[in-house]
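User: Run a structure prediction on this.
Assistant: Running it now.
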Amino acid sequence: MIDYTGISKISRGYHTLQVFKEENMITAQQLNTQFGITGQLEFRDDASGLVVAEIHNKQASASLCLQGAHLMTWKPGSQSVPVIWLSRDAKLAVGKSIRGGAPVCWPWFGPHASESGFPGHGFARTVPWKVTESGNEPDGATRLTLRLVDSEKTRVQWPHACTLDLTVIVGETLRMELTTENTSAADFEIGEALHTYFQIGDIGAVRVKGLEDCEYWDKVGGTALRKQIGAISFSGETDRVYINTASECVIEDDKLKRRIHVAKSGSLSTVVWTPWTDKANKMGDMGQPDGWREMVCVETVNALENVVKVAAGNRRTMIVEYRAEPF
């Protein structure tokens, strides 16, 4: 799936990885030598054994775990409160997903279509990724690109030859680009999502706009196809897959007095999710006792009717950009 066969070089202002010996795991120190940006991008070894990228520039700060290419936090300089929510009970552990941030769900969303033993939302969020590029954008934002590392275990679950890259651009806005390239001789289908958790003041005091009149699959209490009337508000568990929509969404937060814009391309599904009390208590890592009240997921997705065919030799990219503004 992935072949690293060259050596590192600096080109066009970016650090590009061309060779990496598979038998040796790269360390934070090596990553800092090859990809670190003084005063902006630094890699550190976490106590869990995982590596975390820390980004601090004049526009924003963010952190990203290399396992899963999992963006954990993002706070623009204009905001006193982070925009991306990370549970206070979140744990970093090898092979485990992290509660909060922006998990990458790939190459399927939800349960696997035929194999109940395969992980929900795919394996991308719990396997190693490798840094392939870093650099500065013309406006001063920081760019970081990672590539999923396949293994015997992942090839059992996904036997298709391909590459998966995530580019994250951290600035006053946050841009994420998820690119699948089919390097095999046959077409395949994928489901995918950036399962982003947003920091809010209180779930009872937010609305999500932009999905008015859209159809959605309601996953609470059975599955039913419904139509959205007006803005989305919350008074209980919500798990909805809005289909056939490329609309921008806006999270209006009365308590924090801000709007979060979620603009996307290459995505025709949007998932809106909050677990509410009972489910949050069963999950155990939502930040007890009421951490779940301070988050809502508005996810950029291709799922159900909107799974994507990637033709042999082709690539496709799903993009989302977030920005926050005061009322």
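The radius of gyration is 19 Å.
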